[in-house]
């Protein structure tokens, strides 16, 4: 086996989406030599798909907004399961992170007085989302990408080399976080997708910013990259994943045609006035306002409609409930036989706004439906249904530093990190999460790296082991060792997606989850025999075979944690346990690798409890509201 | 509509050569070319190399040439072809090929680095940026760009003349210069950087002969030629060829 | 890595191949495809039609410009001969006779004035596209390889002169003004009495509207009225003007063809009257 090339860096960032790039910028500005590794081309990260906006309580559209209100909304949206310290930091720092983007060249839509315009979104009390039409994620990525280029130009002027202190390794996949003999992070093992060449980036600090896990589900808004790489890398490096049972199904994904099923229809369609109707033409969301939200939402269509113009004296329409509520409502309507022809419900803006306004405010939605479904949204309603969108669970991290608990030198930010969003994420809180915790991860990673007395050493043995693992699909080892025809990774992937979609999907039942776990165990054995043809050069079959390991690990975490949590809350809905249990609120389910060889499963669960919410933060809520969430003893404390 | 078998010709090969290979592959209602390429991967050619990400026309990864026209595979619906038609898919032909439908697009990343970045206005704190909507709308159009590089691929200046690559930034990055020059708060000029002049002198604006292929292929429908390149040419004229404007500038600057 | 931003090793670029004459899409690093394009649509139709249209106009206008006759039939003066700047012009009562050039000019007076509209259209951003594609095949159509071994675009003489489009725009304004004046004069009858109208008046009206629309939809005009500003918000009037010109500008191509046709028709109409092919139908 050829020796994998080794390079030395201070901080390695895995992933070049919003969190990864923000982390890289921060680490580089702190003086750390920083490498970014990403599976796609630079600037193509899944963040570009984010449409609605960045939630930050700048108070430009409504002066009543401030970080405390934002914190409150976030906690409510997450059903109080959030790591409250993360929610606090997020709410406090988001405005600065947005303003900073402007100094790097971002061009947000403006208010009349020239400030950043902010729009309404589900679960946010005030108009809070800084946005650029419906392509905010693209603006975010482009701004960060261009800031990286600016820093590289700076280095070019100083050192004559653009990549002296900040380099992007594009189209490379990390398969292992490498550690030294003391259990400290020592770098990453990766391969170049184009050539299949292996290389090691040695660094004392590694930031995971790999996004989510949606590709384990059949209907998803996520791209092929979302195979839970960072989740799996962290697990394999000894970190814990927290609350993986919470998976957000975005209520409005496209349902037709089949090839685009799952692609997102932005929430701004509803924020700007779009309404949901069933096949009987009824605005059914009024029937689905849960008790905890009863006094916050309009009771009649008239009141809801007035709210768009006069939000101070009216309550918002229930179409703008948090995503989990809307997704469940759509699911129930379809089940009750009141769905649209292709198994969704109708989302209508055509009767709510003039065509010109729709094209101006929702240009990419107009475009998307026109091009992909041949539907003119200015003239007819869209058909939408729930789609797997986001995982709230993720690497368990220290709230302030984003360092993975239990693995010195490992950091995680963005979707791959858990805790911030509790059981359900509010729209718009994702982009701000990327920026706030991306920056923190970069900052503390750089500090950690510069504070070490000695660099961790990665032995050749560990590198060889990683290389052998990565090459296994070419030998096509079969489950029974008989050398039968190797498994097709594409077929395995489809079975995995079907299992997760059907058995651990939006509505869960104990028996189905048990079946899912049995399926996953079987798939895992078969995946060891996944074989590929051809060579290592840009071989998608090989890449998928390697990604399967990650998807299977993460899927098992989701299924196991979902089975364990015997209540319904946010992104975890159990038909057999429909109520939210106050006792479960403080309980965090942590997944860790138990025994990678065990036939029953490789994941073990642990329980921890969240620290009590700090008194000043608790006092932001009414007593009556807290009663709905907090256990008796917490209230008296 | 039922499913049918379509004839596909897909370029397969690498830097050492290759050619068009024929496939017969199932097509279902509502599918796009990228779906068919994926079906080929899953059923007939597991090692067929292709770049893609979002599958919704937002990331600009799956650029290729379909029946000779630069397009995004995810936004090319199969219904635009007749059932008998042979659909030919090749990699972008302006860039070096890597494997199958994947090309080496590093040209674009090099050019991106050569464009001087946004210069923040000195003395304006974050949070104090004030811009009017009508002022940001022009550069915002250019920021819709998803960097699919179809315009770079179709532009004959570099597609047909490899030797022009060092001197010519291509439509995408000339548009980036226009974007920065129209940014209401960009302070390049105060910092001594004349973007209009450098567009012509350093980035090859003069190579553009405004034949509009960039605009024709843009999947984001950005009016690259009319709104970015021609205005940029006119701005360069202001600087270099128009004494009247030059004189006017002198006078108004003195006054203000 | 090749998809990254590392420089490729020397010798792998295409410049050597270009020198050998097999450059562009047939360069050694590009995907090996024998065909210089794979387009299956009728891509040649647009450049061929453009070339044919432009050629027809060039032939017609050359004949008429050198004819030096049949360009005045009271009260109509052919737009090719207006203003008429030499002594050898046909006398046009109240018409655009300004003998700036005196008697030494012996050629057709059309040549003196046609320079300006010709230059305006020749350097026009739309016509450039049209003839680069139609006549020069540079490129013939998108993603269709062009037949030239070398290309420098508008970086050198003579094509760098395309940058003076703006001066022709400035010149096109008074020309359009004079044609407007000519159109006003068509509200006379053959004996110069005001308050009359004929079919020719309509032809001239349509022509002058199209000429103005084409002239004002010019990209240089769009730039001058407002495009050059960085802050529209500080110049609301110019912003509005820019918006109007922009809307016209989006139709620049259509206006270019329509006005080309209408100016030729106006001239041909005058020609037919002048040779007595028929009498101008009078409305009142």
TrEMBL record, chain A:
InterPro entries: FAD-dep_OxRdtase_2_FAD-bd, FAD/NAD-bd_sf, Fum_R/Succ_DH_flav-like_C_sf, Fum_Rdtase/Succ_DH_flav-like_C, SdhA/FrdA/AprA, Succ_DH/fumarate_Rdtase_cat_sf. It comes from Streptomyces lavendofoliae. This is Succinate dehydrogenase flavoprotein subunit. Pfam families: FAD_binding_2, Succ_DH_flav_C. Residues 493-591 form the Fumarate reductase/succinate dehydrogenase flavoprotein-like C-terminal domain. Its cofactor is FAD. PANTHER family: SUCCINATE DEHYDROGENASE 2 FLAVOPROTEIN SUBUNIT (PTHR11632), SUCCINATE DEHYDROGENASE [UBIQUINONE] FLAVOPROTEIN SUBUNIT, MITOCHONDRIAL (PTHR11632:SF51). Residues 10-431 form the FAD-dependent oxidoreductase 2 FAD-binding domain. The active site is at residue 323. It comes from the Bacteria. Keywords: FAD, Flavoprotein, Oxidoreductase. The keyword Flavoprotein applies. One of its GO terms (molecular function) is steroid dehydrogenase activity, acting on the CH-CH group of donors. Residues 300-320 are annotated as: Disordered.
From TrEMBL, chain B:
The keyword rRNA-binding does not apply. Keywords: 2Fe-2S, 4Fe-4S, Iron, Iron-sulfur, Metal-binding, Oxidoreductase. InterPro entries: 2Fe-2S_ferredoxin-like_sf, 2Fe-2S_ferredoxin-type, 2Fe2S_fd_BS, 4Fe4S_Fe-S-bd, Beta-grasp_dom_sf, Helical_ferredxn, SDH/FRD_Iron-Sulfur, Succ_DH/fum_Rdtase_Fe-S. CDD domains: fer2. It holds the Pfam family Fer2_3. The keyword 4Fe-4S applies. Gene3D superfamilies: 3.10.20.30, Alpha-helical ferredoxin (1.10.1060.10). Belongs to the succinate dehydrogenase/fumarate reductase iron-sulfur protein family. This is Fumarate reductase iron-sulfur subunit. The lineage of its organism: Bacteria, Bacillati, Actinomycetota, Actinomycetes, Kitasatosporales.
Automatic annotation (TrEMBL), chain C:
The lineage of its organism: Bacteria, Bacillati, Actinomycetota, Actinomycetes, Kitasatosporales. Keywords: Membrane, Transmembrane, Transmembrane helix. Residues 1-28 are annotated as: Disordered. Signal peptide: none annotated. It comes from Streptomyces lavendofoliae. The chain crosses the membrane at residues 43-63, 104-127, 167-187, 193-214, 255-278. This is Integral membrane protein.
């Amino acid at each position: 086996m050829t020796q994998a090339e080794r390079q030395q860096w201070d901080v390695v960032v895995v992933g070049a989406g919003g969190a990864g790039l923000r982390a890289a910028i921060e680490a580089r500005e702190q003086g750390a030599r920083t490498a970014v590794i990403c599976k796609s081309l630079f600037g193509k990260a899944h963040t570009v798909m984010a449409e609605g906006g960045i939630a930050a309580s700048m108070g430009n559209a409504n002066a009543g907004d401030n970080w405390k209100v934002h914190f409150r909304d976030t906690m409510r949206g997450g059903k109080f399961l959030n790591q409250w310290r993360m929610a606090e930091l997020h709410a406090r720092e988001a405005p600065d992170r947005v303003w900073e983007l402007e100094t790097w060249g971002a061009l947000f839509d403006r208010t009349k007085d020239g400030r950043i315009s902010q729009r309404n979104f589900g679960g946010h009390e005030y108009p809070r989302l800084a946005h650029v039409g419906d392509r905010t994620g693209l603006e975010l990525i482009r701004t960060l990408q261009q800031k990286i280029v600016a820093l590289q130009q700076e280095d070019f002027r100083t050192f004559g080399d653009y990549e002296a202190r900040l380099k992007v390794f594009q189209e490379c996949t990390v398969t292992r976080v490498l550690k030294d003999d003391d259990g400290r992070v020592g770098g990453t093992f990766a391969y170049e997708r184009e050539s299949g060449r292996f290389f090691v980036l040695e660094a004392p600090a590694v930031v995971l910013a790999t996004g989510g896990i949606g590709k384990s589900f059949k209907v998803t808004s996520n791209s092929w990259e979302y195979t839970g790489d960072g989740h799996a890398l962290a697990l394999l490096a000894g970190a814990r994943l927290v609350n993986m049972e919470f998976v957000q199904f975005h209520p409005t994904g496209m349902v037709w045609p089949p090839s685009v099923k799952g692609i997102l229809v932005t929430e701004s369609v509803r924020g700007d006035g779009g309404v949901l109707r069933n096949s009987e033409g009824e605005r059914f969301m009024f029937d689905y306002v849960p008790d905890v939200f009863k006094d916050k939402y309009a009771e009649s269509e008239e009141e809801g409609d007035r709210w768009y113009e006069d939000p101070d004296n009216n309550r918002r329409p229930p179409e703008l409930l948090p995503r989990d509520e809307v997704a469940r409502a759509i699911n129930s309507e379809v089940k009750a036989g009141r769905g649209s022809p292709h198994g969704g419900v109708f989302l209508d803006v055509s009767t709510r706004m003039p065509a010109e306004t729709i094209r101006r405010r929702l240009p990419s939605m107009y475009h998307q439906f026109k091009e992909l479904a041949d539907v003119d949204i200015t003239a007819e309603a869209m058909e939408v249904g729930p789609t797997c969108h986001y995982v709230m669970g993720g690497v368990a991290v220290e709230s302030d530093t984003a360092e993975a608990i239990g693995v010195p030198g490992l950091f995680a930010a963005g979707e791959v990190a858990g805790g911030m969003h509790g059981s359900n994420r509010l729209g718009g809180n994702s982009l701000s999460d990327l920026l706030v915790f991306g920056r923190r991860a970069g900052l503390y990673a750089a500090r950690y790296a510069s504070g070490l007395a000695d660099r961790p050493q990665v032995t050749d043995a560990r590198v060889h082991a990683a290389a052998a693992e990565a090459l296994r699909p070419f030998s096509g080892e079969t489950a029974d060792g008989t050398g039968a025809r190797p498994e097709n990774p594409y077929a395995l992937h489809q079975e995995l997606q079907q299992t997760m979609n059907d058995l651990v999907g939006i509505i869960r039942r104990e028996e189905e989850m048990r079946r899912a776990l049995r399926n996953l165990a079987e798939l895992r054995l078969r995946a060891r025999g996944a074989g590929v043809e051809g060579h290592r050069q840009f071989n998608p079959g090989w890449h998928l075979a390697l990604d399967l390991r990650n998807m299977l690990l993460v899927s098992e975490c989701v299924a196991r944690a979902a089975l364990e949590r015997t209540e319904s809350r946010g992104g975890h809905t159990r038909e057999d346990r429909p109520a939210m249990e106050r006792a479960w609120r403080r309980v965090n389910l942590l997944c860790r690798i138990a025994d990678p060889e065990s036939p029953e499963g490789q994941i073990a669960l642990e329980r921890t409890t969240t620290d009590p919410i700090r008194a000043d933060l608790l006092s932001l809520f009414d007593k009556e509201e807290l009663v709905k969430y907090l256990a008796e003893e917490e209230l008296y404390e | 509509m039922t499913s049918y078998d379509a004839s596909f010709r897909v370029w397969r090969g690498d830097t050492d050569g290759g050619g068009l290979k024929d496939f017969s592959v199932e097509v279902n209602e509502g599918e796009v070319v990228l779906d068919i390429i994926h079906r080929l991967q899953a059923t007939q050619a597991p090692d067929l190399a292709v770049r893609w990400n979002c599958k919704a026309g937002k990331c600009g990864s799956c650029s290729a040439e379909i029946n000779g026209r630069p397009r995004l595979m995810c936004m090319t619906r199969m219904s635009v072809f007749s059932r008998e038609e042979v659909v030919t898919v090749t990699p972008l032909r302006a860039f070096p090929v890597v494997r199958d439908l994947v090309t080496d697009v590093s040209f674009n990343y090099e050019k991106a680095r050569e464009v001087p970045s946004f210069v923040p206005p000195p003395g304006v704190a974050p949070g104090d940026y004030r811009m009017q909507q009508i002022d940001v709308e022009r550069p915002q159009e250019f920021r819709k760009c998803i960097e699919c590089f179809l315009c770079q691929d179709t532009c004959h200046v570099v597609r047909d003349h490899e030797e022009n690559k060092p001197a010519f930034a291509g439509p995408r990055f000339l548009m980036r210069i226009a974007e920065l020059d129209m940014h209401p708060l960009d302070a390049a000029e105060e910092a001594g950087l004349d973007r209009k002049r450098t567009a012509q002198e350093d980035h090859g604006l003069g190579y553009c002969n405004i034949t509009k292929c960039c605009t024709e292929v843009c999947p984001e429908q950005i009016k690259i030629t009319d709104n970015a390149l021609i205005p940029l040419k006119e701005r360069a004229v202001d600087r270099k060829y128009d004494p009247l404007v030059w004189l006017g500038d002198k006078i108004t600057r003195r006054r203000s | 890595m090749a998809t990254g931003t590392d420089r490729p090793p020397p010798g792998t670029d295409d410049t050597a191949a270009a020198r050998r004459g097999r450059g562009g899409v047939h360069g050694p690093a590009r995907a090996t495809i024998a065909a210089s394009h794979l387009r299956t649509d009728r891509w040649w139709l647009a450049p061929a039609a453009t070339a044919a249209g432009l050629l027809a106009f060039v032939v017609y206008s050359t004949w008429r410009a050198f004819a030096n006759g049949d360009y005045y039939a009271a009260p109509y003066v052919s737009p090719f001969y207006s203003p008429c700047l030499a002594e050898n012009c046909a006398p046009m009562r109240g018409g655009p006779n300004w003998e700036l050039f005196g008697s030494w000019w012996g050629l057709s007076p059309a040549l003196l004035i046609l320079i300006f509209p010709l230059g305006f259209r020749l350097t026009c951003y739309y016509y450039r596209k049209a003839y680069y594609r139609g006549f020069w095949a540079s490129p013939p159509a998108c993603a269709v390889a062009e037949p030239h071994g070398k290309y420098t675009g508008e970086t050198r003489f003579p094509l760098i002169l395309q940058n003076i489009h703006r001066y022709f725009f400035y010149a096109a304004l008074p020309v359009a003004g004079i044609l407007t004046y000519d159109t006003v004069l068509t509200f006379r009858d053959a004996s110069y009495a005001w308050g009359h109208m004929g079919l020719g008046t309509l032809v001239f009206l349509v022509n002058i509207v199209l000429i103005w629309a084409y002239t004002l939809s010019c990209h240089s005009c769009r730039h001058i009225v407002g495009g050059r500003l960085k802050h529209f918000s500080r110049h609301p009037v110019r912003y509005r003007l820019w918006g109007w010109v922009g809307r016209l500008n989006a139709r620049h191509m259509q206006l270019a063809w329509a006005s080309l046709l209408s100016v030729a028709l106006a001239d041909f109409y005058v020609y037919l009257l002048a040779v007595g092919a028929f009498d101008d139908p009078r409305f009142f």
